Amino acid sequence: MSGTAHPGLNLGASDARAHERSETPVFGFWVFLMSDLIIFGILFAHYIVMTDARAFGPGPAQLFDLKSVAAQTSLLLASSYTYGMASLAMKHRERIRPVALWLIVTAILGATFPGLELRDFANMIAEGGVPQRSGYLSALWALVGLHGLHVAVGLVWIAVMLALLAVRGLSNRTKTRLLLLGLYWHFLDLIWIGILSIVYLGGLA
Amino acid sequence: MARQATDPIFGRLDWSVTPFDDFLAAPSIDEAVASAAAAAVPLGALAVIAVLTWKGLWGALWRDWLTTADHKRIGIMYIVLAGVMMLRAVAEGFVMRAHQVTALDGGVLSSEHFAQLFSTHGTIMIFFVATPLVTGLMNFAVPLQIGARDVAFPVLNQVSLALTASGAGLVMISLVIGQFGTGGWTMYPPYTSATFSPGPGVDYWVWAIGISGIGSTLAGLNIAVTIYKNRAPGMRFLRMPMFTWTALCTSIMMIYAFPALTVATAMMALDRTLGFHFFTNDLGGNMMQYANIFWMFGHPEVYIVVLPAYGVFSEVSSTFSAKRLYGYNSLVIATMAIAVISFTVWLHHFFTMGQGARVNAAFGIATMIIAVPTGVKVYDWMATMFRGRVRLSVPIIYLVGFFFLFVFGGLTGVVLANPTIDYQIHNSQFLVGHFHNVLIPGVIFGVLAGIHYWFPKAFGFRLHERTARVGACLWFAGFVFAFLPLYWLGLMGMPRRSATYDNPAFEPVMWVTAGGAAIVVAALGVTVWNFYASTRDRAALACPVGDPWDGRSLEWSVPAPPPAYNFYALPQVKSLDPWTIEKAEGAPYQPADAYEDIEMPRPTSLGVVIGGAAFAMGFAVTWWVWWLAGVSLAVIAGAVIARAFVQDTTRTIPAREVEAAHQKVLQQARQIRAVDRDDEIAPANLGHAAPEVPA
Q: Are the Cβ atoms of B644 and A142 closer than 8 angstroms?
């Protein structure tokens, strides 16, 4: 492989042309994620600024359920592991079945995450923690909600990839898309670790 | 906030939303102006539809333009879009100046109407004139300059344009249906919150800017990735033309600055539509957060639009002086420095909003520092012209105008950068003078220079030189009379955005600026007229060989207009100014050693679908037509997913065909006489340059 090839490509053993062709989309998607990161970065900064803007409304102590957050964290990290297995299966097994199976496992784990998150949101609403209540809660819902929205989009994307695998098989274009989805899925972990540390652990510390 | 009951089908739309019924109910000059402007939109659209139908151009428009993924055509469409929007925004500027001569203790327009005018004027000029103009130039020129066949993501490019166009459409339709916000182009809350501005006006702004902002982020991403990944063999970073360098810096800035705008508009939408408390007065909302987030985008935006103009001036100063660009490396470093420092100065937009002396001092110093790399550039361009064989062609006339006028605006910026002085003159006409003084001679003159420079490359014929020179002089004169008096007004104490004033001393100055505005309108008219007149006389202005200015970079080595795939064979780049070197070595226009099959993107209607749906969504949310918003969002998602299943996304042009086309072009180049620079604007200049020595 040439020195300019992008690191971390898992397209299979020896297809130089496919590697080269996937370089631009992968690099472009990295850039897109950096841009998306700015959005999250601003929301994190905004959340920190608004920590005390509670207007006598509920705060972390009333709203957060660390057990549920721990479960969500484990689910999301586990789903990243299973996505990694899907990537390895794509590179080394070159068969549709194992890739699809690992994707389905990822989707199940991933879908449980927003399920728990929605339950948390419902509890927050029951406690009076709606985003319209205070500047703090607006910031909280925007940050955590945007992450949840990203996970939901990721789940739709996994469904589309399963359909593509069924219709088109493991073509080079499908493989490239799986690479991008992998970047996206791991990126969401990264954001979640930030949310866990700053919003949940930071809020209850 | 409790929302009033609305119709499930039409939301808050009803028959009272156009300005026409207000005019009929109570005729006045104010309402007549609003109605005439509102009538201009559907009439203009009807006129365009009529011409297209009459000339039978619908098929060509759809096939060759709306569905194309060709970066050159997309670039041209960006510029046409910006041109149409500019007609409106310049007209608004003129109406405001005309109003202000009558505004001593009153005025013909209502203050509400005047506030809408300065809000739309600023919004359009920044987001739908300056930004698409530079995006269009980058789209057109960058792939040609780096020896690429297209941008990295041609279909995404089309989608970016469509999103920008749908934002522009929302601003246009606000003239007819409802009204626009009155909070200025920055739309500061809490004035623009649902409490104080409950109507649809601010929502129009939020969605127009939000949608087009995403388009700009994606456009920046595309251009940056193109420059990183699609350069021709041998095109190292320090061999890239200066315009490509500025495009690289601008697109990186777009990637990092526009997300802040996306966040600011999304938060504003949540505040207004769902009752969140990001920026409200009550329940812990904090307006300062808006000022910070908005200007984290807003300041880099200034440099996003001006850097490509600097790039054009770099190309122009060297080409029309027949000299290598002076201080290439220093220009690269200065460009990069500006791109970085521009992210550290945003706070100077609100020195007076209470963050204390230390913070203000830090940002004031950063603001003064950013003037230094710009100064480096100005000296480099002057040194490039020094002892060159300068032709005073239109692009370099704009450069000379820029030297005098822009530097003046830059100096008033350094004045404003001092927080203590800023306390006196912020929000005055002095500020209005300053930013027009940098944006018009900087961006508009730069883009006009670029358009006159690359027009022959895009269309295969030059623009009339004499008319264009008259236009340039009118631009200078109009600018000077319309905007320099504002410094004086500001120092006399006139606030910006004043619909009316009570100091009689302002009135004579208003007459001068209104006269200047009239000259600007004339300048725009001459510029537009020249496009028409030059198209009419295109046979006498033709330059099919494609090198009318004795150009230096790769785009001048291909015919005009270039083939869809840009290069018959990818060039091998060995130095800066590769085309000049090739001509100096005496062997330009040679067949390639080998030709290969070329894979090009097929046309697609994805952009039209997504742009149309985004427009419908923005309109629907503005008017609380929730079902339509849901349907539009589903259409966007469905289109993106469906696209993943399309297989034949490219077409292949066989090598034989490419070779035959190249042979034909080479034969034409051999038959056409090479002209030297004395004949540059004569009909004999068919685009075959007799190169100047030395290179």
A: no
Same structural domain for residues B616 and B593? Answer: no
pLDDT of residue B3: 52
B259, B271, B637 ranked by CB distance to A39: nearest: B259
Task: Judge whether A171 is closer than 8 Å to chain B, CB to CB.
Answer: no
User: What region, left, alpha or beta, does residue A5 occupy, with left being phi > 0 and alpha being psi -120 to 50 degrees?
Assistant: beta
How far, in Å, are A6, A169, B281, B466 from residue A12 at the CA level? 14, 14, 57, 62
Answer yes or no: do A142 and B230 touch at CB < 8 A: no
Contact flag B259-A42 (C-beta cutoff 8 Å) = yes
What is the separation, in whole angstroms, between the first and last Cα of chain B?
A: 69
| Strand B650-653, strand B598-601: pairing | antiparallel
* C-alpha closest to that of A22 among A35, A11, A34, A37: A11
Which amino acid type is present at position B572? Q
Answer yes or no: do B442 and B460 share one domain: yes
Judged by CB atoms closer than 8 Å, whether chains meet at B230 and A24 is answered as: yes
- Residues B547 and B638 occupy one common structural domain: no
User: Does residue B259 belong to the interface with chain A, where contact is any CB pair within 8 Å?
Assistant: yes
- CATH, residue B445: 1.20.210.10
Q: Where are the alpha helices (DSSP H) in B492-605?
A: 506-536, 538-541, 578-584
Q: Is the peptide bond before B654 cis (omega within 30 degrees of 0)?
A: no
User: Is B525 found in the same domain as B576?
Assistant: yes
Distance from CA of A85 to the nearest CA of B (A): 23
Q: Shortest Cα distance from A87 to chain B (angstroms)?
A: 20
Q: Which domains does chain A have, with CATH numbers?
A: 39-204 (1.20.120.80)
Q: What is the pLDDT of residue A2?
A: 41
Complex ipTM:
0.94
The answer to whether residue B665 sits within a structural domain is yes
Structure tokens that stand for B426 in this block: 């912020």
Instruction: Determine, for residues A164 and B153 on separate chains, whether the beta-carbon distance falls below 8 Å.
Output: no
Identity of the residue in B152, B284, B286 whose CB atom sits nearest the CB atom of A24: B152
Tell me whether residue B623 is in a domain.
Answer: yes
Per-residue model confidence as pLDDT tens digits over B254-287: 999 999 999 999 999 999 999 999 999 999 999 9
Residue B223: both structure tokens together = 């251009």
Mind telling me how many Å the CA of A23 is from chain B's nearest CA?
8
| B178: nearest Cα among B14, B32, B8, B45 | B14
**pLDDT < 50 positions in chain A:** 1-6
In single-letter form, the type of residue at position B504 comes to: P
Inter-chain CB proximity A138 and B256 less than 8 Å = no
Per the structure, the complete domain to which residue B560 belongs is given by: 26-604+649-679
Among B221, B263, B275, beta carbon nearest to A42: B263
> Residue B1: what pLDDT?
39
Q: Is B119 on the interface with A (CB under 8 A)?
A: no
* pLDDT average per 10 residues of sequence, chain B (695 residues): 67 83 86 89 92 93 94 98 97 96 92 95 97 98 97 97 98 93 95 93 97 98 97 96 98 97 97 96 94 96 97 97 95 97 95 92 95 96 95 96 96 95 94 97 98 97 97 98 97 94 95 97 98 96 96 96 96 94 90 94 96 98 96 98 92 96 95 92 93 67
Residues of B in contact with A138 (CB under 8 A): 270-271, 276-278, 285
Number of A/B CB contacts below 8 angstroms equals 106
Domain count within chain B = 2
Report how far residue B491's alpha carbon sits from residue B486's, in angstroms, rounded to the nearest whole number: 8
**Interface residue A48 vs chain B (CB under 8 A):** no
CA distance B43 to chain A (A): 40
Shortest distance between the Cα of B500 and any Cα of chain A, in A, equals 37
For residue B664, give every residue at least 6 positions away whose Cβ sits within 8 Å of its Cβ, in sequence order, or none: none
3-state secondary structure B197-208: CCCCHHHHHHHH
